[in-house]
Amino acid sequence: MTTSPHLSGSALPVTVSITRHVDPDHVDQMTAWVRAGSALAERFPGFLGTGWVRPSTASDEWHMLYRFDSEQSLARWEASEQRAWWLGSAQGLVGESLRELRTGIEGWFDPPQEHDVEDLRGRPKAPPRWKQAVMIWVAFFPLSLAMTLLLTELLPDLATVPRVLLSTVLMTPVMTYLVLPWLTGRLGWWLEGRPAPWRR
Prior knowledge:
Blueprint (H helix, E strand, L loop, with lengths): L1 E2 L10 E9 L4 H15 L5 E7 L7 E8 L2 H8 L2 H8 L5 E10 L10 E6 L9 H26 L5 H32 L9
Antiparallel strand pairs: 1-3, 2-4, 2-5, 3-4, 5-6
């Protein structure tokens, strides 16, 4: 954690929290880059401090904080040539995924007075249609079979239309809220084209 004595009045302090993604092979470069950014920021009036948390070995996420005494001071830093150069120097090394702006001292500890979150990750790409179809069939077939056997056992004389109506009314919420979420949670890696968990 680095701190600075600069203060520019009684305006409400602002904390920016950023999640960045870094290739684990570039930890040394990332450390040097973060320190360079801190050294540049602390030269600006109103800078109150910065901090960062390195990830565990299983994660590529770095959580960074920097804090200014007002939105005006923050705006000067974020619009500066120094910051633009610093960000540009990490092209291809660092990816930013989540940026949070907080006012008051809650950026460190207290409950928020104001909290704006901007998700910088692009919308996740939808799985291919054929994978979606397979997932729906995998959920639908055993459920439909079980429901057919159950209704045949319990209501053997029920006509076709009421049987199908009852079956779909019962199956739809089960599919929507239980079966499909359970399946997609366990087969999300396959839908998204990622390696299976046991191969990582």
